[in-house]
Amino acid sequence: MPSHVPGQTAEPTTFRATSPLTGQEGPPIREATSAEVTAAVAAATDAYRVLRTWPPSRLAALLDAVAAALEDRSGEIVASAHQETGLPVPALEGEAVRTTGQLRMFSRLVLTGRPLEATIDHADPGARPPRPDLRRMNVPLGPVAVFGASNFPLAFGVAGGDTASALAAGCPVVVKGHPLHPVTSALCAEAVHAALGDVAAPAGTFALLQGGSHALARRLVAEPGVKAVGFTGSTAGGRALYDLAAARPEPIPVYAEMGSVNPVVITDPALRARGARIGKELAASLLLRTGQLCTSPGLLFVPDGERGDTLVDELRRELTAGGRGPMLSAGMAGALTSALEEACATPGVRLAAGGRRLSDVEVENTLVVADADAFLARPHLREEYFGPASIVVRYGSPARLLSMLDLLPGSLTFTLHAEPGEDLDPVVALAAERAGRIVWNDYPTGVAVTEAMHHGGPYPATSSAAHTSVGSAAIRRFLRPVAYQNTPDSLLPEALREGNPLGLPRLVDSEWTSGGGSASSSRAGAAG
């Protein structure tokens, strides 16, 4: 199954994915060549010069067409993803709905004109010094390289959130498919190409490059025509791409979502009020997708004392009785097992449940318990354990808890289970320093695709804490502002012309105007 770059010849290099369900290898997938990488980015550069002129209505139609094409092939895509990842079919069906839903969300967003942030300040000759006519709007950044995730083959895959938000911004996309699910990637790419043909998009608007080597990733990021990178994966992988992008003659931004421990703080009053429920719900959150979620609760801060002991026992029972499934790959299962062995060899740390590797791809649901001294002394206990495992850290006084929380790395989420009236201001303040989303009396797994969502956080959760990879604000990563000074109306982009031919909402002389009408009704009149 070839990479989707038309007109290129192949080198005889292939790779295969192994199904965690059956252990069988998939079909041979041809590795994209260096020439294909260069050709894909060159075609994307040509497409960019066309897409950047498209009005919002055409970009919205493109996104809607991609969503419809994916829906038409949803059954085939889900079946392939199930075989290649081992993820449950119902979870993948939900992921397919999320994938098309976020494409349509960006379509609606584009139609509002809000991402352009059209802003006009009319000339004011009476100001001291005199002020020129200034008009600013956002424009697409350029071709974007997207790296698909292993654990979300659809929603963070070939046509996932990074691709959707980049296309919504008017940026062509070159995707490096994840080697764990190449057939699924190819099926999604075929749907995208069919949709782009239906809306007469330029040929280089989208390309899929397949490969199992790090060399392909490095080559793609190093291509001069690439202007930004979207990545979801490990800290090591994201950091390597970030460093490579920063070392280019023209450095570019890398928006990488990486590792996250997603701490959960549980207070004694919360346990008194609903300890049994917390135990069941927390275990269920931990076991979603075999613990292979970027928001999986990996560090649980549980108070010393009888109620904390009861919660640990409840978690142990729930995890022992909970369902198991294969991890995405033998490599991931091996990495988790090694990390757990290192943790349990640490003084002050004990294994409460699980810990064994049952097969190449299956690890027991695992609970590790650490005392405060061990956690404070051992940095490896503050790292992500990707898979069906969590570390409980016992704490005593509030001051002791804060001293431990102060050592936490940046995370996507920070969860608090507490009761009204507790003095938690210092914990909440620290949570805001350490995470991009604070969760109150709920669980971090499950990321709503909405306007208000922020799926990001301080390093190493992401490489850019100011941006999100989920929700409508994700489009901001792939836009940049351009200001026009004293520019003739006929030479301005339509979004900034005086008559507002696109009917966009605009900020004119510090006042918001609804779509339609001239921009000359505010300060311009006063200054004239």
Quick structural gist:
This protein is an alpha/beta fold and 528 residues long. The protein has 15 helices and 19 strands. Strands 12-13-14-11-10-15-16 form a seven-stranded mixed sheet, with helices on both faces. It has a five-stranded mixed sheet with strand order 17-4-3-18-19, with no helix packed on it. Strands 7-6-5-8-9 form a five-stranded parallel sheet, sandwiched between helices.
Question: Topology of this structure?
Answer:
Elements: E1 14-15, E2 29-30, H1 34-51, H2 56-72, H3 74-85, H4 89-112, E3 119-121, E4 134-140, E5 144-147, H5 161-169, E6 173-176, H6 182-198, E7 206-209, H7 214-222, E8 228-232, H8 235-247, E9 254-257, E10 263-266, H9 268-287, E11 299-303, H10 306-321, H11 330-344, E12 349-353, E13 366-370, H12 372-377, E14 389-395, H13 398-405, E15 411-417, H14 425-434, E16 435-440, E17 479-485, E18 506-508, E19 511-513, H15 523-527
Parallel strand pairs: 3-18, 5-6, 5-8, 6-7, 8-9, 10-11, 10-15, 11-14, 13-14, 15-16
Antiparallel strand pairs: 1-2, 3-4, 4-17, 12-13, 18-19
Biased composition (Polar residues): 10-22
GO molecular function, one term: oxidoreductase activity, acting on the aldehyde or oxo group of donors, NAD or NADP as acceptor
Region (Disordered): 1-27, 507-528
